[in-house]
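lol ok so funny story. i was supposed to be doing the assay writeup but got distracted and ended up predicting the structure for this chain instead. priorities right. anyway since i did it might as well share w the group, maybe its usefull for someone
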Amino acid sequence: MSKDLIFIFEFVSGGGFSQVNIPTSLFCEGFGMLRSIIADFKALGFEIHTILDFRIFFLSKFLQADVIRKIDEHENYLKAFKNSVKICKYVFIIAPETSKILYELTKLVKNYNKIILSTNLYAIKNCTSKLMTYNLFKKSRILTPKTYRIPYIKKQLDKEFILQKFRTLKCPIVIKPEDGVGAESIHYFEKESQILNFLRDYKLNSIKTSYFILQEFIEGEDLSISLIGNQNLNTTPIVLSINSQDINIKNIKSEYFGGYTPLVNHKEITKQLFNILKKINLLKIEGYFGIDFIQKHDHSFSFIEINPRLTTSYIGLRNIINMNCAELILNSRLNNLNNPEINLQYYSNYTRLDFLYGNFENGEEFYEELMPKFIKLIPEFVTPPISLDNSKYFSCFIATKTKDLVSSKIRVNEIIQSMKNLNFNISIPRKIKLL
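and the output, tada:
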């Protein structure tokens, strides 16, 4: 067994949805993270193994992995996952916290006595629950939105409880699963009528979660922190970057499209956050993780949740930092991280683009001949243009690398124009604004 052999697994593209349709938005983020982290560990000299769903196996040519195992239709990915874990010394997992998926996979790897380079079990167990995170923030005496677990009545969310809290809070609310999920599962309400329509139409049995929470909505700018934790440092985690999040709310549903990093005033905000982070007991969290927070209109911060895993912002972070992020992750998990000097040298806008491609006639021709040309023309593609339902609707994920934020956003608009010139009809539910 090679000492430098690592198995890198991403749930969405690695067979976790082999029995159902793959959500395009989640796939674009997941494959983008997989491709990015593989490239970074490859640069460190690792031999890399991974697995891919049969429907997107043609994308294997874009991964710098040495061994890529295909998960066939109706095959349970878990068997291939276990076999890959057994022959590797190191394992890195990218998976959702929902339904304890990330926890159970990490626990399985730990039981095989492998070195886990993704976030540790303690962090996953204690940060997956939004209520536990809320209580941690409250105990640390830092600002966080009021949060309540919604009770059930006859296997349905308690309507009167929700309405009573909405009236008491006297502000918009959000309802979301209690175990960590993406923005797509967050619902936003300004009126009682919206809540009543949601409760009437929403099918609880379609969501694989035990509980939902109600949370007051905090107005402000959606931000996140990318961090590296290490117990040996016996101090606050190392702040890698402060990121802006692009979250769109439309018809009570929210959707995440990416963001940009770092903030123009990231040094100032990092200093402010450092004093706040010292109040939170984060010492037992190892590896890469993120914290979502809001910068309110009065410039104070309200902390929302902790993400005990690789986050989408990694796709942009790796383009701006002066170090290989995978090396930081490796050293943190091997207790060799000794206060590295972090410098952010570039700016990156990382975003999902959705579009209609009118010339699509032959799927094989598109992916075999046209896609490589698109990637050569636009190297910012992290997840290439893909249609998961064989329609003319495509999505991709891009990440820029420029000297300043204005240039980064200009480059996004240049990419959009280039794709229009190639007969793509870009459909963006929000505008990429220039500063």
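The CA atoms of residues 140 and 279 lie 6 Å apart. The chain is about 35% helix and 25% strand.
back to the writeup now i swear
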